[in-house]
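Researcher: I'd like a candidate sequence for this fold, 278 residues long. If you have to choose between options at a position, lean toward the conservative one.
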């Protein structure tokens, strides 16, 4: 078992190194046109910021949304968008896997002596996507200052832990959705429904949604742990569905629970791949 564990660690190290080399190549290519890159990032930041503008317009007409104030909703928004932005930056390219399967270019990745997932995730690494994460950080920073919360050490530490765990949860969705494209090459929009759709859903408080939807997003596809559950603890609000007291700190466990099936589905899809035209 120890030997198998060492092989796994070595394989993971190879994947990280390959990811860094491929992503670095694309970053150098992008930075060759720095003015274009800056304009693209700014445009991306402004475009993604329209979601928050929509929320601001809502609060220009009401004082609360589902019982949540503007700073509280901004906290939900900031946690969700920041986590999603990090995951999209690191694994967003996996969504294009179906195109590689259709045109046969995926075969070239199989003959290289590095993990396939690292190659797929780093392929055409789009540094411009950092605009979404930056926009989420800005809103999150404002929300943390504006909300009324008792900032204990536990609450302060929970914020970065929540962002990292949320990014891992979204990254797992990207990988699982990409793996599904081994069987259904035109399923990118199905994946987007869970990734882009998921982060849009989480930007609003759980109190505006039906109980069945909240239950599904908590126990079936645990997106609620990206922000709903930890934000409830940060704000001293009751947990959705009456979860136990320690639920806000279950993010790392939930992230692992998401990673394991995503990795299993990826390996299953990779083994089932029979090349183009088969």
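Model: Candidate sequence:
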């Amino acid at each position: 078992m120890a030997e198998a564990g060492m092989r796994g660690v070595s394989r993971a190290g190879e994947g990280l190194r390959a990811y860094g080399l491929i992503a670095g190549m694309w970053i150098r290519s992008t930075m060759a046109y720095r003015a274009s890159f800056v304009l693209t990032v700014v445009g991306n930041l402004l475009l993604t910021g329209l979601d928050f503008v929509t929320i601001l317009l809502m609060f220009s007409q009401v004082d609360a949304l589902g019982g949540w104030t503007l700073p509280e909703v901004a906290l939900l928004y900031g946690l969700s968008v920041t986590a999603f932005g990090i995951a999209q930056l690191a694994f967003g390219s996996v969504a294009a896997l179906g195109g590689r399967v259709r045109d046969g270019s995926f075969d070239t990745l199989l003959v290289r002596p590095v993990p396939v997932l690292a190659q797929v995730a780093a392929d055409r690494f789009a540094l411009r996507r950092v605009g979404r994460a930056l926009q989420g950080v800005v809103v999150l920073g404002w929300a943390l200052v504006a909300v009324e919360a008792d900032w204990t050490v536990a609450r302060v530490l929970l914020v970065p832990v929540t962002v990292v765990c949320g990014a891992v949860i979204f990254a797992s969705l990207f990988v699982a959705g990409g793996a599904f494209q081994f069987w259904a090459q035109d399923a990118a929009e199905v994946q987007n429904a869970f990734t882009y759709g998921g982060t849009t859903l989480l930007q609003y408080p759980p109190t505006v949604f039906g109980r069945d939807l909240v239950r599904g997003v908590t126990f079936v596809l645990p997106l609620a742990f990206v922000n709903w559950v930890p934000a409830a603890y940060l704000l001293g609000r009751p947990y959705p569905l009456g979860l136990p007291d320690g639920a806000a700190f279950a993010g790392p466990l939930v992230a692992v629970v998401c990673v394991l099936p995503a990795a299993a589905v990826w390996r299953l899809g990779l083994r089932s791949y029979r090349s183009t035209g088969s």
